[in-house]
Specification:
By secondary structure, the chain is an alpha+beta fold. The protein has a domain of 200 residues. The chain has three helices and 15 strands. The strands form two sheets. Strands 1, 2, 3, 4, 5, 6, 9, 10, 13, 14 and 15 form an eleven-stranded antiparallel beta sheet that branches. A hairpin with a 2-residue loop joins strand 9 and strand 10. Helix 1 runs antiparallel to helix 3. The radius of gyration is 45 Å and the shape is globular.
Length: 336
């Protein structure tokens, strides 16, 4: 009986050794050698797009450039003066006068010289409207006729143009610029010049060097963003020639037509609906991508890990040991 018990004990020890060997031989990965399942990388958070100038509304407090043609309405002298006109301020005067009378004016008030649109319809921003070549005819009349049609002033026609190089000073000048802030217009027309009696007069504001001497005042006015109707006015001190220290006052009225409108009229002040929609679409796409990546990350954790496999082996060994104990107990009882 003791021999049987010793055999059974030896068998039990062998079973324990086999179980241990099986557990070691499986070479189960340990936590120290194998990290957790790799997670799918999170999508980068999209950076907000910089706000584009065209993405603000017409009521924005930020001034925006208007690129196109300020089509001028011809000056009219009936029942007062309306439309576009030119006036010359005497030395020491202001925008309220006193003014020089032009005996060639058809208006009852001879201080107004009515302006008529030229072949381009008016003043173009974002581009030059160079003077004609030659700029004068044999009588000294100005020939340029793109911005305004030549107008008679003291027996000689004056003409207007914008040139890369100012014809009076020889300075390089920028293209005309007009900006809108809500309904308020401001600008820079330093390239604007008048030609009269074989002489050139810079009539821009500011002057070619950027200064605003004396009565010179930058363009200012109003714009209806729905219809494009505008008024624009500036003054420019005359420097040199027979009208030295006189001041030209330029008053333009008409309709602004954006170069993006295809000539259909109206201010074409585009808002940011399209840009906002694009941003929304971009955000939605990023959210969807994030959801898909998150799903992949969660699924990566659902597989069997090393802890589960080792636990299964130990559970099987426990069942084997319990069964062996029961056999040993039964043998002892039989011997007894």
């Amino acid at each position: 009986m003791q021999r049987v018990a010793r055999v059974l004990l030896v068998s039990l020890l062998q079973l324990l050794v086999v179980a241990s060997a099986s557990s070691a031989g499986a070479q189960l990965p340990t936590v120290s050698t194998v990290g957790p399942p790799a997670l799918a990388p999170e999508p980068p958070t999209p950076e907000p797009e910089p706000e584009r100038p065209g993405a603000t509304s017409a009521q924005s407090s930020e001034a925006r450039p208007l690129v196109g043609t300020f089509r001028i309405s011809a000056g009219r002298c009936s029942a007062g003066v309306s439309g576009s006109y030119f006036r010359m301020i005497q030395p020491g005067g202001s925008s309220a006068g006193p003014f020089v009378s032009n005996n060639d004016s058809p208006c009852a008030n001879k201080s107004y010289t009515a302006l008529r649109p030229g072949s381009d319809g008016g003043l173009v921003t974002g581009a030059y409207q160079p003077q004609a070549e030659p700029p004068f005819d044999s009588s000294g009349n100005g020939r340029s006729a793109r911005i305004t049609a030549p107008q008679r002033f003291y027996g000689v026609d004056f003409a207007t143009a914008t040139n890369p190089t100012d014809p009076q000073t020889g300075a390089k000048v920028s293209q005309p610029e007009i900006h809108v802030d809500g309904t308020k217009l401001t600008g820079d027309v330093r390239a604007f010049a008048a030609a009269w009696n074989n002489q050139h007069f810079n009539q821009g504001a500011p002057k070619p060097d950027g200064s605003t001497p004396g009565t010179t005042a930058r363009p200012a006015g109003r714009l209806d963003p729905e219809t494009g109707a505008f008024t624009l006015e500036w003054t420019s001190l005359i420097q040199g020639g027979p009208f030295n220290n006189f001041t030209g006052l330029w008053h333009l009225e008409g309709t602004f037509v954006s170069s993006e409108s295809g000539g259909s009229g109206g201010a074409q002040l585009t808002g940011g609906a399209a840009a906002s929609g694009g941003a929304l679409s971009s955000t939605t796409g990023a959210s969807a991508t994030g959801t898909r990546s998150g799903g992949a990350s969660r699924l990566a954790h659902t597989g069997l890990g090393p802890e589960s496999l080792a636990g299964g082996i130990l559970l099987i060994a426990s069942f084997g040991l319990a069964r062996l104990r029961r056999r040993v107990s039964a043998a002892v009882v039989s011997d007894g």
